[in-house]
Amino acid sequence: MEFSLSEEQLMIQQAAKDFAQNELLPGIIERDDAQKFPWELVEKMADLGFMGMMVNEKYGGSGLDTLSYVLAMEELSKVDASASVMVSVNNSLVCWGLETFGTEAQKEKYLTRLASGEVIGAFCLSEPEAGSDATSQKTTAIDKGDHYILNGTKNWITNGSSAEFYLVIAQTDADKGHRGINALIVEKGMDGFEIGPKENKLGIRGSDTHSLIFNDVKVPKENRIGEDGFGFKFAMKTLSGGRIGIAAQALGIAAGAYELSKKYAKERKAFGTEIANHQAIAFKLADMHTKIQAARYLVYQAACDKDLGKDYSLSGAMAKLYASEVAMETAVEAVQIHGGNGFVKEYHVERLMRDAKITQIYEGTSEIQKMVISRSILKD
Q1: pLDDT tens string 215-250
Q2: CA gap 227, 237 in Å, rounded
Q3: Which sequence positions are flagged as catalytic?
Q4: What is the pLDDT of residues 26-57, one digit of tens each?
Q5: What SS3 state is found at 344?
Q6: What CA–CA distances, in Å, run from 295 to 170, 213, 253, 279, 315?
Q7: How many Å is the Cα radius of gyration of the chain?
Q8: CB 225 within 8 Å of CB 98
Q9: Which single residue of 35, 81, 210, 303 could bond 66 by disulfide (Cβ 3.0 to 4.6 Å)?
């Protein structure tokens, strides 16, 4: 099995690498400390076509394949996971969901602006009591004929304050369980829609994560995605693709930690020689490189499955599970290789370690991925 990248894919990979090194790396420590990502960098990512990579060009997107998206995600994540998660959510969860399941009117009104990067979006599924258990939606959307009345709270929403459009999953008919759930497009500024406090997070601190509160928000029925009761299926199908993006993010974090560690090990001296010449360090680097390469093949395979129109729920779950584990392991070892320097911000690996942890949690915890994988392999 060989993944041969096209000339266009290599160009995208290089463009993302150059942007990460030249635009994201400067000021990243300050952004992490301030918990803020500047909008001008979002605009630059939009100019490069990163905010709607897989969207058809007629809707303002770049019209690229999933593998190209994964390549860009990996390079951005090597440097700044806060930037890459914005790209991931806008591409995988918001744009893909709208393009695949939205009406033509919804695409023209919302998707074109999202894909071009003029605005960004948010995906709102998690609640205080509905994280991994996505069926337990307490947010309600009561059918009032030509509109819904939306009430409830969403937690841990990426792009919570910077988004303009929000895809909100809510319960319309509790008696129907998950078949009574709908997905609604909510616009910032709608009466009764309030953005809650910003979360003070361990990692991806440049990404704005908020709770959202809906108090009798009137949402037109034309803002519903799909048929009545399609919301849960919409969320699950969208998350399956989103996991590929987060797997690519985890891969990038691991690769970034490894590259910094290899460079440091070849420069730092101890006991009269570079520490890379000590077997204890060399073996750590060997393990890191091997696991990263294995994760990379899993991520690329999931992307190719999606591009080929195959069922990617299993390959995506495996990629997300393994890549996130490798990200965490590699980042911890990177700090160890750097020793005391690894514990201070200027060497970057402590931030990568903090950023790595969330990849094992959001868009389905590692435990959820194991459920998906085990159900898939045991059903035959």
Answers
A1: 999 999 999 999 999 999 999 999 999 999 999 999
A2: 15
A3: 363
A4: 999 999 999 999 999 999 999 999 999 999 99
A5: coil
A6: 35, 38, 12, 24, 11
A7: 21
A8: yes
A9: 303
